[in-house]
Design goal:
5 helices, single chain, mainly alpha
Length: about 140
């Protein structure tokens, strides 16, 4: 645990993935609390944000809406971008490669996955820049 605490204290950004389920949300909230404890212990700011994964691009479930509201009420930082459930992401784990190397005749809607990944990457960069500006 000491090694984890030390790594947390020196990290640039903690990304806490969670799916839209109550069990995952409870674990994500616990991870956020652990980051806060380490901030207090080391007297440093540790940027952290929850990332919703495997979400539907088309449907916002009642469970997700409830979790979002609970996180908002408790001041839990959450990425605006969600990593949506997409065949292209599953194909990467099954066949390897990158999104741009996938065969569009075998994997559907690759452009939507690329857009989703780029939005996430841009948000990570923005959070890192904001953290760096606060530290300066």
């Amino acid at each position: 645990a000491g090694g984890l605490a030390q790594r947390l204290a020196t990290t640039d950004l903690v990304i806490i993935p969670t799916q839209a389920s109550l069990l995952d949300a409870v674990e994500a909230a616990a991870a956020v609390q652990e980051v806060k404890r380490q901030e207090d212990a080391f007297r440093v700011r540790i940027p952290a944000s929850v990332l919703y994964t495997r979400t539907s691009a088309a449907i916002r479930t009642r469970t997700l809406a409830s979790i979002e509201e609970e996180f908002k009420e408790n001041g839990v930082p959450v990425f605006k971008t969600r990593i949506n459930e997409r065949e292209a992401y599953r194909a990467l784990f099954s066949f390897g490669g990158t999104l741009s190397s996938l065969d569009p005749s075998q994997v559907r809607n690759i452009p939507a996955a690329v857009d989703n990944a780029r939005a996430f990457a841009a948000e990570v960069v923005d959070l890192l820049k904001a953290a760096q500006a606060r530290a300066a």
